[in-house]
Amino acid sequence: MADSYIQQLIAERIGGNKFGKDTVLYKFEKIKRARRAAMAAQPGVEIIDMGVGEPDAMADPGVIAELAKEAAVWENRGYTDNGREPFQQAAAKYMDEVYGVKGIDPETEVLHSIGSKPALAMMAQAFINPGDVTLMTVPGYPIIGTMTSWLGGEVYKLPLLESNDFLPDLKAIPEDIAKRAKLLYINYPNNPTGAFATIEFFKEAIEFAKKYDIVVVQDAAYAALTFDGTKPLSFLSVEGAKDVGIEIHSLSKAFNMTGWRMAFVTGNALVVKAFGAVKDNNDSGQFNAIQMAGKYALEHTEITTDTAEKYSRRHSMLVETLNKLGFKAKKPKASFYLYVKIPKGTKNGDIFTTAEDFSQFLIREKLISTVPWDDVEPYVRMSVTFIAETEEEEQRVMNEIYTRLSDVEFIF
After folding, report:
1. Taking a C-beta distance cutoff of 8 angstroms, is the pair 284, 79 a contact?
2. Has this prediction a pTM greater than 0.90?
3. Contact call for residues 192 and 337 (beta carbons, < 8 A)
4. From CA 362, how far away is CA 299, in angstroms rounded?
5. Edge-to-edge strand list for the sheet holding 371-373
6. Domain co-membership, 294 together with 349
7. pLDDT value, residue 37
8. Are 139 and 376 in contact (CB under 8 A)?
9. Which of 151, 120, 159, 121 is nearest to 133 (CA)?
10. Whether residues 108 and 195 fall in one domain
11. End-to-end CA gap in the chain
């Protein structure tokens, strides 16, 4: 059957006349297919899902009650455009109380976003022209580079290596790339590595941005989820940060509000304003009842404290379990991700050349779902957001992981 004329009209940025014909599978689609095949081959066996990167818990009852209350308010039925003051004021106060970032102007230095994903994409729309460069860390969130490419810009990838504590080496960026760069995206605590940035690194990023006139976009989605005495660290708490960039905070991870789509951009007023100009042409704002529920969440940081304690406990348990099996897992200081170097194979003859090989083995043979990352080095990401309602259930899941893998002699 001949192609419809519509096939010829599709923009090249998403594939043009080849759109929909590509047989290459995105890794998450591969995971889904492998999962379905494994379940069909071993019906009745529980899937242990450590691949999903979203909280396993519901939003706090107080947040839900606030949504219900505000949803019934007649004045909240309409568009909110670029936001409402109560949420912006709560965000500014939150930055002060949790991160020690003082002096944020809620009117000019805070703007809500319908989740952090569109904010990351819209930054490129605000700053990138054809030929401009975006600097982004890899492994990382693909959307960060996608919009730059669609706009005719160039993406320069900064590898995150364990030898450098999964921080980018800014000194290794070629001079000609640095001079053409407009955006530097960083993400700490990091997805997928779980790495925690240092004040020294943030200072280096600020100096680099000032030297080359670059805007820093710090994705702080996991910033509040810290463990074992580690204090939450904001890029904006470092002197000079607000001169060069912004930080994006999400309520998804810290407040179990993934599907609610609520985040905020804060920092340099001109960057926030530029983001607002793009946002105003992309959406009409998040439902005000959700903004008010978000305000409630930001005012109840004990929600995050309780969530972080759960993830910390699960991380400790998972690290102990994996290390008993021969892995060299190390508990992160923050986030709900554990980034683990893969084994070379098994004594039964399995060979793992890539992280995808190992991840497929785990789901196919042991019904344990993980996410492979081969961008720089072969690691798998394990999320401690698996379903377990009690501490006893958490321990049962750990025991099950150990039981399933203990009969495999891994070669490292």
Report:
1. yes
2. yes
3. yes
4. 41
5. 337-341, 379-383, 371-373
6. no
7. 82
8. yes
9. 151
10. yes
11. 51
